[in-house]
Specification:
Layout (H helix, E strand, L loop, with lengths): L1 H22 L5 E8 L4 E7 L2 H5 L4 H14 L5 E6 L7 H15 L4 H14 L4 E8 L7 E8 L7 H4 L1 E9 L4 E9 L24 H15 L5 H5 L6 H33 L1
Parallel strand pairs: 2-3
Antiparallel strand pairs: 1-2, 4-5, 4-7, 6-7
Length: 273
């Protein structure tokens, strides 16, 4: 079945990602992608510290390729390293930073760690951020602490596509502490965001006293011009209604003249008799 082959390939890809993330711990790992090419499998590792991934003279990469060939039966795995420049806009790197700082300094300074990570994310231009730290912090009773700032979508399609989420675990003496980081990137287009357009300003120039006097004189001169005979002789074009009225009046006069002629002819015949 083709479906089983797709499922097996996806499971294999997930296991490779988990293996690479466990091998490359605390190197600022963001994402692991697997691409199948004609030459072999291509593994792209996105990290903020590429030097630690490569190692001295490439020892870490050579060891990783050998382990991938042995554990997953890959013929020719090719590893590429992609450096992330803006680390404060990557949820996985921020979650790893919080977990590492909690393991190093303990649970006593967890508030400072959370606020520092949050301010760094907002300083990079994110629209909103939320950090959840849950576990036995700072006392022996389990609690969940929430650090949030800005605007963050919790429902809808944007909460799935536009919000980046990451989960990780910090192993402390008191127990395991869970960390969840969710942030909204600055290039997300929100459907409820409305941009108001500025109205065009009409600039009205005020005339000086001298210019206004000149304009008034020109208007008075134009109004005081006498009407010539040529203007009087010019006939204005008649409208449709006027043309109709002229035709009806002509018809009436013609009927009147005909009736007069008939009466005169009758009178003449009577006199002859």
């Amino acid at each position: 079945m083709i479906e089983r082959k797709f499922v097996a390939n996806n499971i294999k890809e997930f296991l490779i990602k988990e293996f690479v993330s466990t091998k490359l711990g605390k190197v600022g790992l963001s994402d692991v992608k697997l691409q199948r090419t004609p030459l072999g499998e291509k593994i792209i590792i996105s990290t903020s510290r590429p030097g630690l991934v490569v190692g001295r003279s490439g020892t870490n990469i050579t060891q990783l390729t050998k382990d991938l060939k042995k554990n997953f039966d890959l013929e020719n795995p090719q590893i590429e390293i992609e450096e992330i420049k803006e680390i404060h806009l990557d949820a996985n790197i921020i979650a790893e930073f919080i977990a590492g700082s909690l393991e190093r300094f303990g649970s006593a300074r967890f508030k400072g760690v959370g606020h520092k990570a949050m301010s760094g994310i907002m300083g990079a231009g994110a629209l909103g951020v939320e950090i959840l730290i849950s576990g036995k912090i700072p006392s022996s009773r389990a609690k969940s602490w929430r650090f949030y700032m800005g605007y963050l979508k919790k429902c809808g399609d944007i909460s799935i596509v536009g919000v980046k989420k990451a989960y990780t675990v910090a192993k402390l003496k008191t127990g395991i502490v869970g960390i969840k980081v969710s942030l909204m990137l600055p290039d997300v287009k929100l459907p409820d965001k409305i941009d108001l357009l500025d109205e065009k300003e009409e600039i009205i120039e005020e005339l000086s006293r001298e210019e206004s006097k000149v304009v008034e004189k020109e208007l008075e001169a134009a109004l005081d011009q006498p009407i010539t005979d040529a203007d009087k002789t010019k006939e204005e074009p008649k409208t449709k209604k006027e043309n109709k009225d002229d035709k009806t009046s002509k018809k009436k006069t013609s009927t009147k003249t005909k009736s007069k002629i008939k009466k005169d002819s009758k009178n003449i015949t009577e006199k002859k008799k």
